[in-house]
Amino acid sequence: MIVFDHVTKHYKTNIGLDDVSIRIDRGEFVFLVGPSGAGKTTFVRLMLKEIDADKGTIKVRGEDVTRFSNRQIPKLRRDVGIVFQDFRLLPKKTVFENVAFAMEIVHQKRKIIKRQVPQLLELVGIGTKAKKYPSELSAGEQQRVAIARAMANNPKILIADEPTGNLDPETAWEIMQILELINQRGTTILMVTHAKDIVDKMNKRVIAIEKGRIIRDDIGTYGFEEALANMEVTMDTLQHRRQLSSGKRGTASND
Ligand SMILES: Nc1ncnc2c1ncn2[C@@H]1O[C@H](COP(=O)(O)OP(=O)(O)OP(=O)(O)O)[C@@H](O)[C@H]1O
User: Fold this and answer.
1) Considering the domain boundaries, does residue 30 fall inside one?
2) What is this structure's pTM?
3) Domain count along the chain
4) Does residue 246 carry a pLDDT above 70?
5) Measured from the CB, is residue 36 less than 6 Å from ligand 1?
6) Is the pLDDT of residue 244 over 80?
7) Which molecular function term from Gene Ontology is one that the record holds (predicted)?
8) Residue 250 belongs to some domain of the structure
9) Three-state DSSP state, 187
10) In a mutational test of the pocket of ligand 1, which residue from 12, 32, 33, 40 has the highest number of ligand atoms less than 8 Å from its CB?
């Protein structure tokens, strides 16, 4: 679904990505984590062909986007839904109109828009707010509208760029449940985040970038240290169980 093959992107004096190879399959839910300046935004912008790679190939849904002409880019961006930390709703449009607008710009039929927008609003749990304006909604509700809008053209991939960054923990968790639901319905999700507690709770694949390189790629917790700590707990538990079953408390076995 998303394949980076030896991708390098250097800015004038900074490293964006450095020889990154990664594969994200259809239906996965992946967290992209790393400190500020690690290369996460560069990864997303390369995927959407907002910037060009210096080296390597990037495939999105089987197509090599590094070879795309300008004419092919709008379709790529339509095939990938995106949600941002700051929602980016149109303030003068209602909830219904915000979602409908995403469908109008791809010339969707009015009849289909009228049918699908309420379904999308139901999906994200704000079916009763269609006539409200963004300023009349809570932050969590605004993010729900943004998710509905991102899903309006039925993208196969949804990028969520710090979607919980402006939300309190409880609301953030509600948004995660919506993303989980969307993922269960078949959309591949790539979520960029610094929210350690969320990553730890979700127990999904975590790709960690630092200084433009992938330093970790596995299922589980946010940080390498946490992963190690968990491993130690598991090792201690295993050792403890072995000692109990062999009746030898206090001695480690190496078998
Ligand atoms: N347009 C640009 N021109 C020059 N350097 C850039 C540009 N965009 C990003 N960089 C640099 O590339 C590196 C990676 O930046 P990137 O924005 O991808 O990091 P990030 O992981 O998304 O960070 P954050 O979590 O703060 O958003 C950083 O050193 C950054 O300063």
Assistant:
1) yes
2) 0.86
3) 1
4) no
5) yes
6) no
7) transmembrane transporter activity
8) no
9) coil
10) 40
